[in-house]
Amino acid sequence: MVTSTLRFLIGYAVRMKETYETLKHMLSSIEYSKHSWHICADLKVIAVLVGLQAGYTTFCCFLCPWDSRDRNKHYIKEVWPKRQFLTPGVKNVENEPLVASEKILLPPLHIKLGLMKNFVKAMDCGGSGFQHLRLKFPKVSEAKIKEGIFVGPQIRQLMKDPVFESKLTKKEAASWTSFKELEKNFLRNHKAENYRQIVNNLLKGLQNHGVQHFIQNPFLAFLLRILP
Question: Number of helices (H) and strands (E), helices first, in the chain?
Fold first, then answer.
């Protein structure tokens, strides 16, 4: 996983927007083309680096032509072909890639944040589990809670909270347990020997919980294909 890779900062942009032109200028300034380092960034920046259109698009994955609109195949089609080329004008590619796809390191933190977001959005807003979120994080706005927008420390608090788990429905609890297992044994430095089963259990739990298929799912499926 990316967490076992040495990371260091070589550039810092102050008060600059995360746009294609900004990142292009930044990479030019550090002479990235001479070094071709691996890059780890949040999903928005990754999309810009590989030339994808911003926003909720049909083909928003740079690894494969996963169709975010084709919900009939979500959770059914498990293997998608690899994107051979990122060509401007084709499948939501807007610009020439600034970084090769194989140089992108998937960010475990942002995969976790995305999983949390979609888990909460699928919860029953009138259920006791959702009400517990309101009580546990009184300073978090109602809008953020409904959208499942939490930061890492808040997610860690919930994962240690037995009361939260006790207030979940049966399907929510099964999905939450699988999520905790994935976070502990796959998204950290340690990767359990049965990590494939852990990932598959999570995907099954999310499906049963009614969580819509989202960009983190093809990322997890891709990791299963490339990891030993």
Answer: 11, 2
